[in-house]
């Protein structure tokens, strides 16, 4: 993976979140993906389970939000991306995430680990 490929993948993730249904996930994630929505969560394993979780976690393709991202590190098939999301619905919310991503040779994510933080959540101290 190179930076341009990771940037395209992140853009595809955002497009998929904004798209009705879960069909775009097959182009983003491997069939046996391991997806951790937080570092302490049990992994969601496999594309069918991820698709079910994906649809349950979002309000739908019209969910109003802005998203920015920056690749923090890249080492072979592993990338770390800082993502900021601001949901503008009522009530609004902000998130700052770190994504740890591992890719296969076809550019699909085989491992996704998210470290989500919101301004009002405890920081572990």
Automatic annotation (TrEMBL):
Pfam families: SnoaL_2
SUPFAM superfamilies xrefs: NTF2-like (SSF54427)
InterPro entries, per database record: NTF2-like_dom_sf, SnoaL-like
Gene3D superfamilies: 3.10.450.50
Domain SnoaL-like: start-end pairs: 13-110
Stretches of the chain forming a coiled coil according to its record: none
Name the record gives this protein: Nuclear transport factor 2 family protein
Organism: Actinomadura adrarensis
């Amino acid at each position: 993976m190179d930076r341009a490929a990771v940037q395209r993948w992140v853009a595809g993730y955002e497009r998929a979140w904004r798209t009705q249904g879960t069909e775009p996930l097959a182009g983003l994630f491997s069939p046996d993906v391991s997806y951790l929505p937080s570092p302490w969560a049990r992994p969601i394993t496999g594309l069918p389970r991820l698709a079910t979780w994906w649809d349950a976690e979002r309000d739908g393709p019209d969910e109003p939000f802005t998203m920015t991202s920056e690749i923090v590190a890249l080492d072979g098939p592993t990338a770390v991306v800082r993502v900021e999301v601001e949901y503008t619905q009522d009530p609004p919310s902000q998130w700052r995430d770190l994504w740890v991503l591992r890719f296969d040779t076809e550019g699909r994510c085989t491992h996704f680990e998210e470290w989500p933080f919101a301004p009002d959540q405890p920081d572990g101290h």
